[in-house]
Amino acid sequence: MIPLTLADIAAATGGTLHNVTDPATVVDGPLSFDSRDVVARGLFACLRGRTLDGHVFAEQAVRDGAAAVLATHPVEAPAVIVPSVLDAMGHIAHAVADKYTGTVIALTGSAGKTSTKDILESVLSLDGPTVATAKSFNNEIGLPVTVRRVMPDSRYLVLEMGARGKGHIKSLCTMVRPAIATVLGIGSAHVGEFGSRQAVAEAKAEIVRALPEHGVAVLYGDDPLVRTMATATPARVLTFGTGDDCDVRAETISVNQGRPHVTLLYGQHREYVELQCVYGRHNVTNALAAAATAIAARVPFQRIVRGLSTATLSSGGRMEILNRADGVTIINDAFNASPESVIAALDALADIAGPERRRIAVLGEMAELGQDAEEWHDTVAKKVLDTGVHLMVGVGGPHAQSMITTIRDGGVHAAEADTALPLAQHINDQLQPCDVVLVKGANALGLETAARELAELRTP
């Protein structure tokens, strides 16, 4: 970590020291907000949650090795007392970023952010030490935690940025200004909160507006809403996609047992790439985004190709393939669900199963779709019918029931999850050896846990 003293932290946050013997005490460990993640010489943030108050864990955090805590009132532990712990975390991120001399890369979009971030981390790590957002810690809490992990010799700092409303990404970029900003497609995710795809695009465009003149905006050229963001920045623009006018593009896309193969083109470079550890043809777009971002960072092209071929989706819950001893394959894509990602996952289910294996889709209803929710769920139900699914299990409320009805009317067996049984057991009772099972739905449904439990079972 980039070292800061307690005096530095107090100055950066506008805080005061309490119960601190030596203001010159060095804090060179991570920033944490979960008392179970405290590391020696780190800093514990006493955030207040819905049910727990981090101040209760202040003493324990210091006993476990934290140098001090961030708190809003005096506690029985060395502390930096601040008006707002959350704001203080952002100020610390800004202070660390001021000392960091490597390249800051930020990325956003409606879907695919975390998968792109994982692929990009795999590529950049071949070029130099890289720190990237863990899992999907992409908000005002997760971003400071990630920034605090950066090392003095880290060549790249990769920050995933999410938005729940206008101004959110702008606020994150105020903490840490990116040199390279990548924008994926604008889809239907969160339209219920923003009001329209155009409103989503305007919020996402804040990331390119934050770029310095010498920066690079990496834009998804196949999406008109993203392509027009080129006018929102004085930075250089690099586009990616499948269109002939994209700077970094793919052609001759194919899939082998769910793994995408693609010919990657950039300038005079042309290279065949097999994504050996990444599944789903939709991940071609994410791989293109990662390649274009690495090109913007001046990573040699052949190194990018090598990184793509060995890239993994390390965050879990995203096209994660879990193979059982009885031949059943679980596709754990249950971290979250937008209509576009569910449709893509159903295509991946068909590709992985091929013509020989039964296709089972466990689908939870999708959230935050606003007035278009009914139409989107109907579209997904019709996609289930089009992709030859043999059995669909619906999880959730009225929208899940509506999908079940449409699928049944189309002649495919569909059932509602049996609430009298654990979901994994209910699904397993209907499986045969060598089935392929897709598990996907809104994060709040907790289907990721069910997918992992299902992977530990065996067919009856």
Provide a descriptive summary of the structure in words.
This protein is of the alpha/beta class and 460 residues long. It has 3 domains: 4-83, 3-Layer(aba) Sandwich (Udp-n-acetylmuramoylalanyl-d-glutamate--2,6- Diaminopimelate Ligase, Chain: A, domain 1); 100-310, Mur-like, catalytic domain (UDP-N-acetylmuramoyl-L-alanine:D-glutamate ligase, 3-Layer(aba) Sandwich); 320-455, Alpha-Beta Complex (Protein-Tyrosine Phosphatase, Chain A). It contains 17 helices and 22 strands. The termini are far apart. The model has no long low-confidence stretch (mean pLDDT 95).
Distinctive features:
460 residues, alpha/beta, Udp-n-acetylmuramoylalanyl-d-glutamate--2,6- Diaminopimelate Ligase, Chain: A, domain 1, UDP-N-acetylmuramoyl-L-alanine:D-glutamate ligase, Protein-Tyrosine Phosphatase, Chain A, 3 domains, six-stranded mixed β-sheet, 34% helix
Secondary structure blueprint with pairings:
Elements: E1 4-5, H1 6-13, E2 16-18, E3 26-27, E4 31-32, E5 43-45, H2 58-63, E6 68-71, E7 79-81, H3 85-99, E8 103-108, H4 113-124, E9 130-132, H5 142-148, E10 156-160, H6 168-175, E11 180-183, H7 191-194, H8 197-204, H9 206-209, E12 216-220, H10 224-227, E13 236-241, E14 248-256, E15 259-266, E16 269-274, H11 283-296, H12 301-310, E17 320-323, E18 329-332, H13 339-353, E19 359-364, H14 373-386, E20 391-395, H15 398-409, E21 413-416, H16 423-428, E22 436-440, H17 447-455
Parallel strand pairs: 4-5, 5-6, 6-7, 8-10, 8-11, 9-10, 11-12, 12-13, 13-14, 18-22, 19-20, 19-22, 20-21
Antiparallel strand pairs: 1-3, 2-7, 14-15, 15-16, 17-18
Helix pairs in contact: 3-5, 4-11, 4-12, 11-12, 13-14, 14-15
